[in-house]
Amino acid sequence: MKSVILNDTHFGYKADSPIVLEYFLSFFEEHLFPYLKENNIKTIFHLGDVFDRRKYINFKTLNQVRLRFFEPLRDAGIKVIAICGNHDTYYRNNNKVNSLDELVSIYPNWEIYSEPVELNTTGGCVALLPWINPENEDNVSEFLKNTTCSLLFGHLELFGFQTLRGTFVDQGYDPKHFNKFEFVITGHYHLKSSRDNIHYLGTQYQMAFSDVWEPKGFHVFDFENRTLQFIENPKKLFYTFDYNEDKLPEIDFKILKDCYVKIFIKKRSKNQTFEKFIDKFYEAGVAELAVTDEVSTNPELVAVDVHKDTLQLLHEEIGTIEDKAIDKSILAKIIDEAYNVALSKDEE
What we know:
The chain is of the alpha/beta class.
């Protein structure tokens, strides 16, 4: 038995940007759905955060996701086993009110779990562990102690793993609580990484400039052979290029339509040459173009690595704080929540 594993699809991301949503949905239409058909795979596990917003939904986003994701899966006879992630739940302290029950349960091919459960499949027993919160924490502890499943699929916040490349989490649950399992396969962190028996899958597609160098795609788990296969998504949304007028980069501008682009200036002295270069990006129809000089002549300016996205830079800045009276883990959590709220504001 083989199943596709998805997680952190975050439909509605970036304030319901239609460009981002098109990029997300085209991944399923062009890569995932054909793979399911070609390999006769009839089961998907979704490990949480189906939607991006916790408290409400944009109806235009929902319409597109219904027509291009939920209904094609239903019509193809694909069974989806889903657990709640933190973005799927309305309240922070329990999973009782969640977008999966309210919006997705109408599809008969979806099985939705908001609390820990053992699932017996033809491939063996799987422990499903949705988002852990203050209300279910004791039940989760008891569940982990008593379950006899060797596989655990979850949406876990574990410390010691990276949320962004080079940024390690110092909050969350101790990974040692999961040592009994052969495989722990989980969503939540958007960076693909593995350590010992724990595998964070990352996201299926790029979501920020920090993803430019990260592998993105979906996974296939073989229950018989106990193997986790990564299928890379070749389509990108974010690109970076270096500009050196002595040797201009070779760029296929056709692929840049509706993409986000950053250009780093290595050498520029001829404005006309540079302007012609920039015009090609606008003619290609990029969604957004940013240009930056890597070296500033102003000594008062602090150099910032603009390869990184805003959240990564904020976390790195928090890490430099030396005042012991400041709890950096709490500050990081506040920054994460404020950042997600900012992204969730409607763009009128």
